[in-house]
Structure formats: C-alpha cells, structure tokens
Amino acid sequence: MRERKSSTIAVGTSGVLCLLAVAVLLIGGGCSKKETGPTERTISKSEPAAFQPQLNSDLIQGRKVFEEKHCSQCHSIFERERKIGPKLGSDRVYGSFLDIFSTLWNHAPAMAVYMRKEVLDRPRFSTPELNQLVSFLYMLPYLGESGSPRKGEALLQEKTCFECHSLGRKGRKDGVPLDALGVYQSQVILLQRMWNHGPEMIGQMESKGTAIPTFSGNDMTDIFAALTESATEKSRKVFLGVGNTENGRKIFTDKGCSKCHAIFGKGGKEAPDLGKAVSQANVTSLITQMWNHAGTMRKRFAKMKLTWPYFHETEMNDLIVFLYSLNYEDKSGDAAKGERIFRDNRCVDCHFKTDADKQKIVGDIKSANAILFATHLWNHIPAMEAAMVTQAVPWPEMSGQDLRDVLAFLKGQ
Ligand code: HEC
Ligand code: HEC
Ligand code: HEC
Ligand code: HEC
After folding, report:
1. Whole-model pTM?
2. What's the gap in Å between 317 CA and the centre of ligand 3?
3. Distance from Cα 384 to the centre of ligand 1, integer Å
4. Distance between CA atoms of residues 40 and 24, nearest Å
5. Angle formed by the axes of helices 188-196 and 198-208, nearest 10°
6. Do residues 119 and 127 lie in contact, with contact meaning Cβ atoms separated by under 8 Å?
7. Helices (H) and strands (E) in the chain, counts
8. Candidates 66, 69, 74, 113: which one to mutate for ligand 1, based on the most atoms within 8 Å of Cβ?
9. CB contact at 8 A, 91 and 16
10. What is the pLDDT, as a whole number, of residue 44?
11. Across all residues in the chain, what is the average pLDDT?
12. In degrees, to the nearest 5, what angle opens at C-alpha 244 toward C-alphas 59 and 307?
C-alpha cells in the first residue's frame, strides 16, 4: 500500500524517487565496510500529527492530504500530465508556513471558479491537515533535481577522487571501492560516508599535498547518481526517505553543532547562524555546504580539542532535513502594520462592528498560533465571500508578511 503510493508520487524523476520512497525493500548486512548502514529499525517512523506549526517531513502523509482535498485533480507535481492549475514541482520556493498559506489564500477566488466547473466543494481543513498540506508543499523544493551519472563520473575524475578510489572498472585499481554506496537511495549517504572518513581522507590529502575537493551546483547529486548507476547489486536497495526533523534537532545538539552554531540567535557564536545561512536551500546545497566546510571545521575541531562527530544509521539524513526545516516557522509580525492591513482589507467591517464581535475574534486568536489562525481564516472563506459579493469588495489578497502582521495585531489587542 505504502509502496504503491510512493511510486505514484515520483513518476518520471528517478533522483526524486530515491527520496520519496520510505520502505526498505531489502536489508543487507553485506556492505564490506564495518560502518553501519541504516536498517529498518532505524528508519524514521511517521511523525505524529502536528498541532503546532511544525514541519512534518513525511511526504507520504502530505501526499495523502493533497489527494484527499482534490488538489491533485488540478495540480500535478512531478508527473508530465498537464492539468488545469500550474505544476507544483520542486523548482518553486514558497517560504515559511504563512508564506505558503498566503499563496493558497490568494488563489482561493480563482480556485473557486475552477472548482465550480469541476463540481468540487471547497476543501475545509483541520489544523493537522493544513499543517500537513503546507509541510508537503514546503518539502517539494527540498528534493532538488535528479543527478546525471555521466556528469558524476566526470566529476570523480576531475575532483581527483579516482586517484584513491575505484568505481566499477574505473578509477584506481587498488583504490578504496565506492560501489557499495549506490544501494542507499539518498545522496545524503555520500555526505555521511565522506564525513565519517573525513579526518582520515583529509589527512591523506594533506600528506599528498592535494587540495580538499569542494563541490558546487548539483555536483554531489551527480556523483551519487554515478554510484547508483554502477552499483553491482541493482536488486538490493535501501530507501531512506527524507529524514525526521525531530531526530535531527536532537542530533544537532548531541553532535555538538550548537557549541559553535546558533539557530536564530540561540547557541554558539563561533560560526555562522544556521537559521540564516541555510534558508532557500535544498538537499543538494545543504550537503554541499556541509562538505565544503569539512576542512575548516576539522581545523577548528582540532583547535578546540573536540572529537570529530561521526554519523550512524540515518543520523545525517535527519540532521539535513532538520536544517531545512528551520525556516518553516513564522517569525512574529508587526502589529501596527497589521492594524492597517486589517482596516484596509475591510476585515473591520465584520469583526470590529460591535464590542461583542471584537471580543470574539480577539479572544479566539489571542492564544492561537499561525496554524490555528490560518485554519480559521481558510474555513471562513464561505462566510466572507457571501458578504463580499453583496458589498462588492475585492478579494483581500495578503502576503505571508501581511498575515504575520495581522496575527500580531490581533494577538496584541
Ligand atoms: C479546481 C481546480 C483547482 C483545485 C482543486 C486546486 N487548485 Fe490550486 N490552482 C488552480 C489554478 C487554476 C491556479 C492558478 C490560478 C491562480 O490562482 O492564479 C492554482 C494555483 C495554485 C497555487 C499557486 C501556484 C503559484 O505558483 O502561484 C498553489 C500553491 C495551489 N494552487 C495549491 C493548491 C492546493 C494545495 C490545492 C488543494 C487544497 C489546490 N491548489 C486545489 C486550480 C486548482
Ligand atoms: C588522497 C586520497 C583520497 C582522495 C583524493 C579521495 N578520497 Fe575518499 N577516501 C580516502 C580514504 C583513505 C578513505 C577511507 C577508507 C577507509 O576508511 O577504509 C576514503 C573514504 C571515502 C568514502 C567512504 C567510503 C565508504 O565505503 O564508506 C567516500 C564516500 C569517499 N571517500 C568519497 C570520495 C570522493 C567523492 C572523493 C573526491 C571528491 C574522494 N573520496 C577523494 C581517500 C581519498
Ligand atoms: C568547532 C566549531 C564548529 C562545530 C562544532 C560545527 N561547525 Fe559548522 N561551521 C563552523 C565554521 C567556523 C563555519 C564557517 C566556515 C567557513 O566559513 O569556511 C561553519 C560552517 C557551517 C555550515 C555552512 C554555513 C554557511 O554559511 O555556508 C554548515 C551548514 C555547518 N557549519 C553545519 C554544521 C553542523 C550540522 C554541525 C554539527 C555536526 C557543525 N556545523 C559543527 C564551525 C563549526
Ligand atoms: C463579511 C464578513 C467578514 C469579513 C469581511 C471578514 N470576516 Fe473573518 N469572520 C467572519 C465570521 C462570520 C466569522 C465567524 C464564523 C466562521 O468562523 O465561519 C469570522 C471568523 C474569523 C476568524 C476566526 C475567529 C475565530 O472565531 O476563531 C478570523 C481569524 C478571521 N475571521 C479573520 C478575518 C480577517 C483577517 C479578515 C480580513 C481579511 C476577515 N476575517 C474578514 C466574517 C468576516
């Protein structure tokens, strides 16, 4: 059941397929290295439904809401099929929870027109459903582009990897073989293994006088595609899914990242604030950033007498998606601007007419988070629409920032 679902998600793009599948088809102990590979036991289970604006990275659950609410009737994701609405593929970047929600809000009238044609009811959402749906849209850019095995092989040559490594019949005959990595269906494993062997590998490079290779663009995904292509055992595959953000949060502390890095001001001051540094990234750019700094970090680690953090099982996968999740939650808005927006959009006409009206909305929103606010807002579109048509008011389009400001205004009343 799960497997069938996941394969419908990823028709076409094999690189993306890797990340979307969550099942373990075959678990092997046959990897020649002593290193532990992820096993079924350690692959993240679905997270519980979130009642707070908390990214749920489980794409299978997200896809379910996307289908249940008939979004899939008008939007394709990776499929080639053309539908009424624009394709919501991985090249769109939507921002935080309220930024993404605002695109839904703003397209509500256009959607309604098409929905009448298709004889669909406007969907209503519970808070977990809306969180799940927005999480799903938030996760799409994470998947990045699929890799090219041909480019990957050229890179292995160009970046001097083949001076110490072999892959299939290519590279250095007595080099460390890289073939076994290809069974893991996520490019994050490449980073995890390179990282774990970082001190040794970088040490060898330094003694040989070669520079530590760095990557850009889609390089690491291309290299991973080359490994997958050359994997001797095509039948054995280990799917990792996209990782679990909650585990990632723990790993970030446990591995000592927070000794040097802050996240939005909280934590160490030795290194860039990762809340700011990693925004607008995808899985490829995150693993690239991590690796490119391995050299610098190794020096710092030595200076601060810290032991190099090793990653086991799915730990790197969880850490990377945790970094990606950092921009999901909304920062607080500006109440004064929110008051203006609330007035200009005629929200006041219905909500602040009488004191009782005002008390009602303010009372309900005071303790609300962004998800509860957005859910109420969405579910009351029919009530609003009716009045707007009779009063000939245009649809109150709002950006994510507008929504943050309105929320701040209502909370401050
Ligand atoms: C009946 C058809 C239909 C349904 C159902 C539908 N949409 Fe749309 N959607 C559209 C059309 C048409 C557009 C483009 C029109 C516009 O808003 O400018 C659009 C635009 C969007 C956009 C903005 C894309 C962009 O780049 O600006 C997003 C995001 C979106 N839809 C998400 C959803 C989600 C999530 C659902 C399910 C809750 C959904 N849509 C259901 C027809 C539909
Ligand atoms: C100077 C030699 C050298 C170069 C150049 C080199 N490596 Fe390595 N690599 C090593 C050594 C040594 C190990 C550790 C082997 C061990 O521990 O058994 C290693 C380990 C690895 C591993 C882990 C393998 C596993 O099975 O877990 C990966 C992945 C890897 N290297 C990728 C690369 C890539 C990609 C490049 C090019 C960008 C590269 N290496 C360049 C020497 C090198
Ligand atoms: C000993 C201090 C230290 C520790 C511990 C540390 N880092 Fe770093 N990190 C740095 C420094 C310094 C930089 C910036 C290096 C540079 O600019 O070349 C950096 C850069 C980064 C970047 C790139 C940011 C950017 O702006 O490009 C990422 C991502 C990152 N670190 C993640 C991590 C993670 C995840 C951990 C935990 C496994 C970690 N770091 C642990 C010192 C550290
Ligand atoms: C035509 C009248 C009307 C307009 C205009 C209107 N609302 Fe509402 N709103 C309602 C009614 C009626 C309810 C309560 C019934 C419901 O939830 O469907 C409500 C409920 C809400 C709630 C949920 C409060 C609760 O009870 O938890 C929020 C938040 C809200 N509106 C925000 C806004 C914002 C922001 C605007 C301006 C963009 C706006 N409304 C414009 C009539 C309106």
Report:
1. 0.87
2. 17
3. 20
4. 6
5. 70
6. no
7. 23, 5
8. 74
9. no
10. 41
11. 83
12. 150
**Residue in the structure block whose two tokens are 């400001």:** 405
- Please work out whether the CB of residue 31 comes within 6 Å of at least one atom of ligand 2: no
Model pLDDT for residues 244-298, shown as the tens digit of each residue: 999 999 999 999 999 899 998 888 888 899 987 776 688 999 999 999 999 888 8
Extents of the domains making up the chain: 335-411
Give the ligand 3 atom nearest the CA of 319: 35
Better-predicted residue by pLDDT, 22 or 234? 234
In the chain, what percentage of residues exceed pLDDT 70?
A: 85
Mutate to test the pocket of ligand 3, among 192, 293, 320 (most ligand atoms within 8 A of CB): 293
Q: Binning pLDDT at 50, 70 and 90, where does residue 71 land?
A: very high
Which DSSP symbol is given to 24?
B
Answer yes or no: is pLDDT of 217 > 80: yes
Six-digit token string for 6: 């996941």
- The amino acid at residue 347 is C
Q: Confidence class of residue 397 from pLDDT cuts 50, 70 and 90? A: very high
Cα separations (Å) of 87 from 92, 172, 272?
9, 44, 35
| Cα–Cα dist 377/411, whole Å | 15
